[in-house]
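Fold this sequence, please.
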Amino acid sequence: MNEIIFNRQLLYGKGSLDKIGEVSKNFGKKALIVTGKNSAKKSKALDTVLNILKIEDIKTVIYDKAIPNPTVEIVDNGAFVAKEEKVDFIIGIGGGSAIDTAKAIAAMVKNEGSVRDYLEIPSGKKIKKPAIDVIAIPTTPGTGAEVTKNAVINSTQDKLKVSIRDYSLVPKVAILDPKLIITADDEIIKYSVMDALTQLIEPFVGKKSHPVIDMFIIQGIKLIKENLFQFLENKTDLEKALNLQLAAYYSGIALANAGLGAVHALSRPFGGIYNLPHGLICAILLPYITKYNWKFNIEKYSQIAIALGEKESQNKEKLAEKVSEIIFEMNKKLKIPENFKNFNIPKKDIPQIIEASKGSSLENNPKQFSYEELEMILNSLI
């Protein structure tokens, strides 16, 4: 049996943020707005939301503590604020980290203890009471957090980035307004979109893939190919901005319903131990893992190559083999580093990285990596 996870409502297109008041009225009279220090303010999303909610007589409390790789402490503090203020629902505005923070806080409003107790590692307690409702407003085109049932939290105590996971964490409403991403820094756009590309490819070739999700995935890959570089050249193009937002949204649908793979398995310790940007980690790892993976799903990788612009007339095996090269070229054009050698990661940490990568994402990968293979890959990268 398969099931598919979506939001209750998706609003997308120019001006969709203007509907925030109308949809918020369905969830109560007081909202906790979870955001970071920069993107929501730079894009004017926060001002827009505050002004519209004021007109609708919806009270707001701002919690602007979200950071990249959000920590247990930030979530627990946010949950304390939400409880003290007796908010009815939560609005997450920003990149994936801000939205994950919002979702995790929403989960902890009605559940006891620390969010660390509910992370898949080390404790893995199940959420007993559903999260309060969340509206997600992404300001970057990458993580797909606006449609997933998990929130990735950094447990500094355990040196791990791990998920809290429950169906109630899926935001009830996602709002994709292209004007919100045109102010994002180029670096954030690059990392975000390469994260989305990884989240499209891994579910497509993984063991849990299924046909309905595959349709979203192929369209998402095409949207990245056809819009990323053009958007970086002209960031006033709202049509291309929306196309990248949709690609990211499709990547969220993909990972929520068909799982991830070895790139994300390895990205977890890189983010948790070294606090590197998640999209950067994925961009660097993706072509190397693809070199090993393509032989284990030639049909799917050949389709990826075509979605990335290769001619369909070529031999499927040659197409599949080209995917790694295409991604390397994308990274080069985006000026993304080839490896982690400039990040001062000690080689002695490799066993710790491999141990921390174990789990469902590694198991869903089309190729089952041995310890020695992972060790060889990491030795070449750090």
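The CA atoms of residues 229 and 334 lie 8 Å apart. The chain has two domains: 9-180, 186-381.
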